[in-house]
Amino acid sequence: MATAFRQTYRYLQRQAHEQPVIFYSVVLGLIGPVMLVTVPPIRKSMGYRPGEPIPTSYPVPNRPRRPVQGYEDE
């Protein structure tokens, strides 16, 4: 069992040395899903609350509309 871990470690060490771009791309690709599961509970435990949602419409006043008068409105 120990030899399997040792061989895996040696293989990863060799790949990091010979093909660092591929090795670190795989490492970062594996970290993403782990962060997806671990970061939200940590933020919640630290007291993070999401902000108020941004309004998607403008509130229309409750009054009759006045006709526009001015530049080229005749």
UniProtKB/TrEMBL annotation:
Keywords: Membrane, Transmembrane, Transmembrane helix. The keyword Plastid does not apply. Residues 52-62 have a biased composition (Pro residues). The chain crosses the membrane at residues 21-42. The keyword Nucleotide-binding does not apply. Residues 46-74 are annotated as: Disordered. This is NADH-ubiquinone oxidoreductase 9.5 kDa subunit.
